[in-house]
Amino acid sequence: METLEGAERCFPQLLNNSCMKPMPPQSDALFIYILLSFISLLTTTLNLLVIISISHFSPTNLLILSLAVSDLLVGLLLMPVEILFTEACWLLGDLMCAVYYVVVFIITSSSVGNMVLISIDRYLAICDPLRYTTRVTLDRTKICVCLCWICSGLYNSLILKDFLRHPDSQNSCYGECVCSVVIYYIETISDLILTFIGPVTVIIVLYLRVFVVAVSQARAMRACSASVFSATDVRLSSSVPHRLLADAESASLLRKYSRLCPLLHRASVFAVHSSLSFSQYS
């Protein structure tokens, strides 16, 4: 009986101090394993293709590259660990558990920050295109991307400082990796605003503004093209009578010349005969 119970624990040698192995239903575990594996593989492959395809480092491409790197880390590091969580114990120790959660928080925060920077870049490119190249430069974009990652690391390290000091404080047994951040009410509200409500609001507002400006520009382009086509039609219609008049004049001249040619021919023949007869008489 003790042998069977020890086989069901993460660390059989620790007995009561060890956690029980996760025993999800076989069908559910298989479905979750296949789904997460497919998502992880797809995320890693697509973001790797994006990173490889970027050859020219413009400000927009640099922001896309930073977002692709953060998403690549999600598919390459975070999701495989979540797959292991479904059917295995945490065997890497308390320190690696703390590092894992810090990395999770940093990557997710930096991904949100990169999306905010991309929305700002698109807003400036569409709503202020004349000053875009002077306001958005490659050096400024590099600084913004570095600040995004640095601020994400510092902020999440500050939030998880107690967990980093005592990574095993939330674990009830060995083989468990739990991160339960205990923060006060004001810190909770500020964290919710800084990491979710604020970025989502900024992204929605900027893209709505971009949509409005894009629609107005499309209407202006359609109106301009319609005016150009109408002006072209007017010019063509006004040039048709002149062309018809010129054709009519050309036709009348040809008719006159055609009538005059026989007369000239007859006059030349008469002149020749007259000269011949005059020569005979003389």
UniProtKB/TrEMBL annotation:
Record's keyword terms, sorted: Cell membrane, G-protein coupled receptor, Membrane, Receptor, Transducer, Transmembrane, Transmembrane helix
Keyword Transmembrane among record annotations: yes
GO cellular component, as recorded: plasma membrane
InterPro entries recorded: GPCR_Rhodpsn, GPCR_Rhodpsn_7TM, TAAR
Domain of life: Eukaryota
Predominant location: membrane
UniProt topology in membrane: Multi-pass membrane protein
Membrane-traversing stretches: 30-50, 62-86, 98-120, 141-160, 192-212
A GO molecular-function annotation: trace-amine receptor activity
Residues in G-protein coupled receptors family 1 profile domain copies: 27-282
Entry's localization field: Cell membrane
SUPFAM superfamilies according to UniProt: Family A G protein-coupled receptor-like
Similarity annotation: Belongs to the G-protein coupled receptor 1 family.
Protein name as annotated: G-protein coupled receptors family 1 profile domain-containing protein
Species for this entry: Lates calcarifer (Barramundi)
